[in-house]
Amino acid sequence: MTRILKILPVLFALFIFSCKSTKPTTSAEKETPETVEEIKIEKEKEIDKDVSKEENIPDEVIEIEGKESKQPPLNIEEFRAAWVATVANINWPSKSGLSTEQQKQEALKLLDFLESHNFNAVIFQVRPQADALYKSELEPWSYFLTGEQGKAPQPFYDPLEFWISEAHKRGLELHVWLNPYRAHHTTGGEVTETSIIKKKPELAIELANGMWWLDPANPETQDHSANVVMDIVKRYDIDGVHFDDYFYPYDSYNNGKDFPDNVSFSAYKNENGKLTRSDWRRDNVNRFIKRIYDEIKAEKPHVKFGLSPFGIWRPGYPESVQGYDQYEKLYADAKLWLNEGWIDYFTPQLYWQINQYGQSFPELLGWWESENTMNRHLWPGLKVGLGGDEKNIDETINQIMITRGMLPESKGSVHWSIGPLLQHNDLAKALVEGPYRKKALVPASPWLDDSAPEAPKVTTTIENDRLKMNWLVGQNEDIEKYVLWFKYEEGNWDYKILDGNTNNYSLQNVVGEKKRFMDKIGITAVDRLGNQSDFEEIDLNNE
């Protein structure tokens, strides 16, 4: 109750904020499902409590291209993801040089945590410094994996293949996270002969703090990084590709000095280039972002492309915002990418608190939403590393609730990072007992595909006070999940999300001291892009 009372002023402020225009007045760090038959009756007795907390939304019929689409009784879509950073061994593996079995066990611990806390996606860093945490012919094995750049894990396995397989077993999407330009991190060990710094020294630039950066203006850089992305897209069963905020490097990496790209800029000017240096740098990044999006869609349209830029586009947008100017310092015109729809989901790193003047979380989220003219997914990045005390737990939960309120059509958040969620048990517990109490579907991406699968054909029988359900779908349907919808007499709708290989399930037919019988059910099929089939309600009283 204390947490509910604390959030009320926040929600009131959110309502007032949402009534105001966020348009600007001018144009202008982070690195098992339940078994089918053996469902305990005691578990089913908890339905009374679960159902009473769910919003009961009336059935809705939507007209789509001349056809009536019957909507499910509840909106259960929300993207819930966490970053898993491998650079500097931030999250995984805990240190370089662990055995293959130790690495696997650590990975399973992280994935089990996400599944048990009702997340539905993981963003896994596979290219921290022009290297690979997977088998690659283009780049060397990562130092952060084996302790030596270019050395394969022993005994051999492919970590990315393992992560994908285990994530999918747990109902989690896996998005690969790559740094397109960083060639060497300060914690990345010795630069070996396998590094791109040695193989193609004309592409790499050393910075004052010891990092190396690939020149974003060099066509070979763009070709190489694009080839790395597409190699993964072609060979692995991933759900998304993800870039974060590292484009041109932060100026602090070079002691405040300008990025040393005189050679490539002079070559551009000698070819009658007309852009200023700043515009030219932004153009280099812009063309690369669009290229990546187009190439992914040409190869595998269902693979989503996500970007997680610095949370502020420019100071003054919106008017009261202060802080770092990524447009002029990182040469990242993130607003343009969102405006043009060169992404499928957009995750600005809004690592500030709700009431922080100059960088207010809801104010920045509202401004980014005002720029989301192509209606892509806007799933902000939240910083959960502030601690596990009550104040920071409330802050995290309030930010999730604000995001839900401001973006009801496509709810979602990405947590930086998985480490604090594991470290602070009270925070993790508050999430799974609060906003993440029930599992959720990843929101659909209708601009990629809006063809819903066929509704399952369901048969029911009652045996020993249990309702047994079996269902079939069309042979050509590619189903990722099923949603079992059910309602008891005088109760509200509830649901269970099941694996796409499931085709039967059973529920206790009678629950509670008042002997409430199962009243209605329905089963919907969900494809890989989140499209959900029509909801066909079955009234068990008429069966």
Gist?
With 543 residues, this protein is α/β, with parallel strands linked by helices. The protein has helices at 2-18, 41-44, 47-53, 100-116, 143-146, 159-169, 196-199, 219-235, 262-270, 277-299, 326-329, 334-340, 361-370, 390-406, 418-423, 425-433, and strands at 60-64, 67-71, 79-84, 121-127, 173-178, 182-184, 204-206, 212-214, 240-243, 304-307, 345-346, 377-378, 381-383, 412-416, 457-463, 466-472, 479-488, 494-499, 504-508, 510-511, 516-527, 538-539. Helix 4 links the parallel strand 3 (79-84) and strand 4 (121-127).
Brief descriptors of the model:
543 residues, alpha/beta, Immunoglobulin-like, TIM Barrel, 9-stranded parallel β-sheet, 5-stranded antiparallel β-sheet, 16 helices, 31% helix, disordered N terminus
